[in-house]
Specification:
9 helices; disordered N terminus; single chain; 2 domains
Length: about 230
Amino acid sequence: MKLLAAVVVVFCVGSAHADPKRRQIEDAFARGGPGTKLTKTELRPAMKKIAPKLTRCYEQARAKDPETSGVVNTLLSIKNEPKLGLLLTVTGFDTHGPLGESAEFRACATSTFEATVWPAIKTRGTRDVIYPITFTTEPLIDKDSSIVDTAERGVKDARWADALAEAERGLALPTLDGPFRRRLIEVGGVAACHLKNAERARHYYALASPGFEERILAACGRFADL
């Protein structure tokens, strides 16, 4: 997701756990167990509404450094109780670029995700995901799209280490838009599976959009316990 406009959506103030419904949801899961594993397809509509609210955090960072940019992957633990709401807990960050190095930005992002209980979806359950967002003031151009082609050739030729390295190089850049990033995530996951790198395979599986999860899963088989 590219955030190019200075749109103020939410204020990053107050306690990250101010909503009392958070405790109600936590208690409900403590009593009733984890429920089913939520799918990313189920979660996608809700997450698309939440992500733009991080614009405020980005504009705060740009007030100090107008050119700041970066790729910010937020590790989220999600719990959904249909009668109460959708609960997001930030468990970490995987970032590239100066924006993600800002403790103030990470605190603001955490507050935005956790400050409220979001509208529930129909299924009761949990899921750990990595939610990727790219923040940049640069125009959306495909000057680095050749990286994607090179990474995909590495997969085609079974040069798994080269493919993984090229995918990770591309994913660190804020200049590649969504479709290119999704292809690189798939390459990274598939290559990591063939290299028997369970940690990176799990990372890319958690990061992948719904349409690419199955390809990573098929490449890994059972070894990575995705």
